[in-house]
Design goal:
The complex is a heterodimer of chains A (62) and B (190). Chain A is mainly α and 62 residues long. Chain A has helices at residues 10-20, 27-39, 41-58. Chain A is built from three helices and no strands. The model of chain B has no long low-confidence stretch (mean pLDDT 89). Classes of the chains: A mainly alpha (62), B mainly alpha (190).
């Protein structure tokens, strides 16, 4: 759910976190996500966890 | 390495290769075929292969190519499944409150990199990937393990890019939940 042009919900932030792993975000989304991660420690935590999951999956079969 | 030694070392890799091929292909017969083709190709290519240390890396590289070939051969079946799953109305509503906050905050995973040296962690990770619905699991591993880009994944799975992003996003959130519940929130990693 979007809250507005600048502030976004955690749910939307998670969508952007995931989308960013697949393709570069547009300027607006990049800014909104950056701002959200600065003020939301829980989403910053999820950001690190998603990065970790990526690096773990790359190691499968090694 | 002599031919016998290489042969033994390749056969020793079979269970690992089979497990990961099953995880990625979600079809036991395809996985068996793909691993056999991989080992055969490795034997045929052995003359050009020198160092023992990287046998596994080299063979896993061959396996990845064979898996992509197999997806192309089974394209129709793979695509039907992906379309059905992507069309499914499974939502993420159980994770979020109406305002878009999570129902329960994510746990602190501490220093998760420490888990990368634990065999049990990878057991849990593989089990979590196995629990994803077939097309979601395929799409996720195509992206994160085969390291294809989303345009290629949409093409191989025969789905729209929107559906592709939705599958990947759901897969990541589900895996996060699964790892948290079955690893980071438990005593197993201690």
């Amino acid at each position: 759910m979007k809250h507005g042009w600048v502030l976004i919900s955690c749910r939307h932030a998670h969508e952007l976190l995931s989308a960013r792993m697949d393709q570069p975000l547009g300027t607006g989304d990049r800014l909104r996500l950056w701002l959200h991660l600065r003020i939301c420690a829980m989403c910053a935590r999820i950001e690190r966890q998603m990065d970790f999951i990526r690096s773990a999956v790359q190691r499968l079969g090694r | 390495m002599d031919a016998d030694a290489l042969h033994r070392s390749l056969e020793g890799l079979r269970p690992t290769l089979l497990r990961i091929a099953r995880l990625q292909l979600r079809n036991d017969a395809w996985a068996e075929d793909t691993v056999s083709e991989t080992l055969l190709a490795a034997l045929e290519g052995a003359a050009g292969f020198a160092g023992q240390a990287q046998v596994k890396t080299w063979v896993v590289g061959i396996l990845k190519h064979k898996i992509i070939d197999q997806f192309r051969r089974g394209a129709r079946e793979v695509s039907v499944e992906a379309q059905m799953e992507a069309a499914g109305v499974e939502s993420l509503d159980e994770l979020y409150q109406p305002g878009g906050h999570r129902v329960s905050p994510p746990l602190d995973w501490g220093n998760p990199e420490e888990s990368l040296s634990r065999t049990q962690f990878f057991e849990v990770l593989q089990a979590c990937v196995e629990h994803l619905p077939a097309a979601m699991g395929r799409a996720f591993l195509m992206r994160e393990w085969l390291e294809l880009d989303t345009a290629q994944i949409c093409k191989e799975l025969g789905i729209t890019s929107t559906n592709c992003f939705v599958l990947l996003h759901r897969a990541r959130l589900r895996l996060r939940e699964c790892l948290e519940m079955n690893w980071f929130a438990t005593e197993q990693r201690a």
